Amino acid sequence: MSGPDGSHDAPVPVTIVTGFLGSGKTTVLNRLLRRPSLAGAAVIINEFGAIGLDHLLIEASEEQFTLLDNGCVCCTVRGDLVATLKELDRRGRAGEVPDLTHVIIETTGLADPAPILHTLMAEPELAGRYFVAGVVTTVDAVNGWSTLDRHAEAAKQVAVADRLLVTKTDLVSGEALGELQHRLAHLAPAARQSLAHNGEPDFDIMDNQHLGAAVDPDRVAAWLDVPAADHECGADCAHEHHHHHGHAHHGIQSYSFVIDEPIEWAAFARWLDYVAALKGEDLLRLKGLVNVTDEPERPLVLHGVQHVFHPPVRLDAWPSDDRRTRLVFIVRDIARETIARTLTKFAAIDAASIQRPVRNAA
Questions:
Q1: In the prediction, which pLDDT does 132 show?
Q2: CATH no. for 228-355
Q3: Confidence bin at 7 (pLDDT 50/70/90)
Q4: Of 7, 69, 116, 227, which one has the fewest beta carbons inside 10 Å?
Q5: CB-neighbour burial class of residue 350 (10 A; exposed 0-12, middle 13-18, buried 19+)
Q6: Do 228-355 and 12-213 fall under one CATH topology?
């Protein structure tokens, strides 16, 4: 199984493509699959059968739906996803199919991408064979605003994204598109935004390699280089737009922290365990670059989705001259003060060293 560096045993990147019903996932995916860069890709499409498409390997994995008591539809990734990925690996190693260069998982419109991320991050049978390259979320420029207002699932799909792809941009005015992009930036400030013109994305999905895992120094710098002010857009944001969306973000906020002092890793790891146990359901994403006391010249990269965290990755060097710890949270109904308080209590961090970043004047 060939990875992005061309070696046979290198892990293969996995990109999750999600987005609400009617947001254009399938159209975008079909356009992307025509590109030469995805000639060695496999696609796992939830709820659809196996389809041959232009010499690309298309695999099928059923998605299990459970109707909860509160009426919400929740996607649960079953063992068939693990089995499908293992079978792809086996067939590649046996020479039954061309070597894989990428795997794309397309979810259904109501799917929560978090269980798929959990499976890829925590399943021992997949460790070393695949890694999470990132989450691409499609947002319909025509209906995206009202969809975010009405559906918590759509807001969460946006919040956990590494890249947001706004579709159907040719059907709205420039002003309406700008307002939607501004709102998306509040909901997912660390996500890159791209556009699809007449169904054609303005990016290559292969650009997403290491976007989620962020083990490349340039990628680390990119997702930490976000607007510094915290985003807590709710009823008070209504004056910024022509639309009122009092609870449109469904309790989702993003916070950024800068910590001046080096961190003792054992204490910080205890804090991670505490947060995952008590607040994991509402800790949608956590990304961080941590200055640890035992080896300050080599920072640790953190990447978590709810209660599941990637094993920390130590970089060979800092991606910039700024050697402070930086943490980016996307949460649901967790106050910034709660995070700061637990950092001081459980991670042994001096409260005076925890800073709220200041937005650049530019």
A1: 87
A2: 3.30.1220.10
A3: low
A4: 69
A5: exposed
A6: no
Two structure tokens written together for 97: 């199919």
- Three-state SS for 144? helix
Which position has the token pair 């994305």?
201
Question: Reduced to 3 states, what is the DSSP secondary structure of residue 235?
Answer: helix
Q: How many helices (DSSP H) and strands (DSSP E) are in the chain?
A: 9, 17
Instruction: Quote the CA–CA distance of 290 and 279 in Å, as a whole number.
Output: 21
Cβ atoms < 10 Å from Cβ of 96:
10
Q: How far is CA 257 from CA 60, 68, 290, in A?
A: 41, 35, 11
Residue 175 has pLDDT above 90, yes or no: yes
Question: Distance between CA 213 and CA 197 in Å, rounded?
Answer: 28
Strands 354-355 and 252-259: antiparallel
Enumerate the domain spans of the chain.
Answer: 12-213, 228-355
Q: Residue 242: pLDDT above 60?
A: no
Tokens of 80: 């068939």
pLDDT mean across residues, the chain: 76
Phi, psi of 279 (to 5 degrees): -125, 10
Spell out the alpha helix ranges (H) of 214-256: 217-224
Domain 12-213 matching CATH 3.30.310.10: the answer reads: no
At 286 the three-state DSSP class reads strand
Q: Which amino acid is at 160?
A: V
Residue scoring higher pLDDT (72 or 43): 43
The 10s digit of each residue's pLDDT in 205-231 is: 666 554 444 455 565 665 565 544 454
